[in-house]
Specification:
This protein is an alpha/beta fold. It folds into two domains: 96 residues, Phosphoenolpyruvate-binding domains (TIM Barrel), CATH 3.20.20.60; 52 residues, no CATH class. The strands form two sheets. A four-stranded parallel beta sheet has the order 1-2-3-4. A hairpin with a 2-residue loop joins strand 5 and strand 6. The radius of gyration is 19 Å and the shape is elongated.
Length: 210
Amino acid sequence: MKRVTSIGAAKPILAGDSHRWRSSTSVGAVFDASNDRPRRVEAVRGRIKAARRRAARLDRLFGLTWGAEDLSAAIGASTNLDETGAWALTYRIVRTLMLLGAKAAGVQAIDTLYVDFRDDTGLRAASRRSRAEGFTGRLAIHPAQVAAINESYLRSAAEIDQAHRIVAAFDAAPGTGTVGLDGKMIDLPHLKQAQALLAQYAPGESSKVR
């Protein structure tokens, strides 16, 4: 995977566009042309307006994330889970808005933390589901979680190889909107996904990925 070298700062509890502008200015005074670390939009207004980040045009913004515990405090909720143990409806909505806002803005979508740092199995399962939904990483609450998070969000060699095959299939049929591969029809959205995946990895590194 490409190594990203940047200096940044996480900016918590952003309540809207004016907060993002002020925080961008203050960070710029310290970290000249570098990117910020993922911003947390924890205040209620900040969560709802996160999808409008594209209009703010903050070039330093690297990613967006969210904090379930802070949102609970902001709205006075006694729990953020439903009776099955999954996120309650309000939190699923906020999580989805943050994901869509990050994608619309072209920045990283970072999922919230997994609170039980002793539950490695649960963390890995939750992270794999998160990655399947489109998130590109997760906050860690404890150093012991870092390895599991990195491994869960890392693309497999098989996925990278399949992306190469999809791109190659379209290259072999220029101007075509649909190609056949392994008995399946592959169209332009699949090509875009494959290209986005390959953009994250340097040439020749697929064999180094698990």
